[in-house]
Specification:
The chain has 694 residues and is α/β, with parallel strands linked by helices. Helices cover 36% and strands 23% of the residues. Among the domains are: 9-88, mini-chromosome maintenance (MCM) complex, chain A, domain 1 (2-Layer Sandwich); 95-250, OB fold (Dihydrolipoamide Acetyltransferase, E2P); 627-692, Arc Repressor Mutant, subunit A (Orthogonal Bundle). The protein starts with 8 loop residues before the first helix and ends with a strand.
Amino acid sequence: MVSTIVSSPTRWLHFLEEYYQKEIDELLVEYPKKKSLWIRYCDVEFFDTELAEELLDSPDDSLENAKQALKEFHYGEISLDDAHLRIVGLPKLRSFMVRDLRSEHINKLVAVEGLVRKATEVRPKVTKALFRCTKCGHEFFVEQEGNELKEPEKCRNEECDGKRFIFLPKGSKFTNAQKLRIQEAPEELRGGEQPQTIDVELEDDLAGIVNPGDRIVIVGILRIRPRGSQQRRSIFYDLALEGVSIEVREQEFEELEMSEEDIQQIKELAKNPDIDKMIVGSIAPSIYGYDDIKEAIALQLFSGIPKHLPDGTYIRGDIHILLVGDPGIAKSQLLRYVKQLAPRGIYTSGKSTTSAGLTATAVKDEFGDGRWTLEAGALVMADKGIAAVDELDKMDAEDRSALHEAMEQQTISVAKAGILATLKSRCALLGAANPKFGRFDPYSPVAEQINMPPALLSRFDLIFVMQDYPDVEKDSKLSSHILTSHYAGELIERSKIDPSVRENLEGVLDIIKPEIPPELLRKYIAYSRRTIFPVMEKEAIELLKEFYVGLRAEGRDEGAPIPVTARQLEALVRIAEASARMRLSDKITVEDARRTIKIVERSLNQVAKDPETGRLDVDILTVGQSKTQRDRVKIVIDIIKELTSEGGMASEKDISAEAQKHGIDEDRVKEILRKLREEGMIYMPTYGNYRLAT
């Protein structure tokens, strides 16, 4: 049944005058730089329910009438001839997942939420094509629809019967156009469902405002597109969306919209002397303990300051954190919580992730008109957000190597299918890994226990070890916390079918309720990252310098290991900047420097301390071996060289005997010999006898 047209330009004119006169006046001032008037559906519904219903069921006629009404507004000689009405905030009954769109929704106004998977470049599209008749020379315009140039059948000059025409691009009218492919959000899917996609066609000022990775709600008119060629047309059609408006749901921190009330609330919150503790308490409150790690994650969310130096050097501000620990201690839960808290947060897990999935891949399909296009991976889609990568140690070595450039230079270079491109991946990386042998061994170096190359380990600003060991007091508090959390969850689920249970929720929810609501915390972080660019006080500079130089001094003694490198100094600066931002302070004070030193010291003591000597040795991270181990290896190689100097072979028994004179016991000699064989530095001609590889 075709709905009766109830709207008219006059009716829309009355609505716009009553509800949007101020916005139209502002649009007239900024026109044509700004070309859209954004209309809330609820306002149309409040003004006239019939007009609102017609907008949903007959959007083509209704929007055309509204556009005619908009042309009635003038400011001097300026009129809104090419302005658009952008409808936002459709009711829930008209908001769909891609899989829920049906034939009855064709040519109706609908809202679809999803993740931008691909976006073509913005290109001009002809809307009014100018043609010249080859017989009489008469020129005339032809309105264009669809994706193919529509030519006239005969000349518009009544005195001419010409049927051949020349298209004149110079006099034709063009508009900007872009295609998006949006995909259903992963969290909305059930079980083994594949996320479905739909293509979106955008024109004019809607083109070019979103990027791959953005979560959007797009309001548009559902259209059908024929499958197959002109010669063999299928009876099945594809769905496409003709965009009317776009709202970005999950922007990067710096783009989150905030009202004056929000800003006032944020400033009041920052005055609290315990704001840092409140923020730490608002990160994954359902997970008991790990205050040090939560503090580090809070600092990661606030980030240091990215710097572009006069010589063109770029210094990253993002803080990278790695969590290493025993199974079953909530590493993955922490990652998932941070992913939800951070706009543009991407979560991925090791074994199921390839280098193409992390970085970018070149694909060829009809979406880009048969050309090769780049499809962004997780690190690109997390640009200006956080990438949470679980099970880092389970990734294949060649896939994991893609992280090196992304972590330090924060770019991803692609050379595939004739495409040479450098994509931005300005994201913080929060990684999690399990020890090689299941549980962490406090008496072995971290680099030996994680299946990751030292070059990658050294790029993390902070590495924390999470150990699970029995402790009566801690276990008692932990069990109470977990059981109470589960009890609160049970009450919440029960209250959905039995409202009377809600009375028991008071007080129980406190244990899992964040001190600062997630939405407010997100805005607090966004405000800080947008407006706070702290500068170090001289006292803070001196304290960080004293700490760094003091650590380096430990390596001056002959034979002593190098405790830290300049890379750790840069990490100190980033963390100190984040600490000041957490307080919304324009100055990095001595207190910020002290907090930074405390966190970095704790991290270094866990992962860069030689378990044999008790001294800090950064080589454990950067090389994979402590200086003590390297010295032992050199001694064993020298012993083999000496024993084989006159030809022959060096027996394991003789090597052990000589090594014991240098304080190396038999078990360590066996371990060193095994590693040297694996690296191809020695070989075993006969069992138990060794020679150096030449």
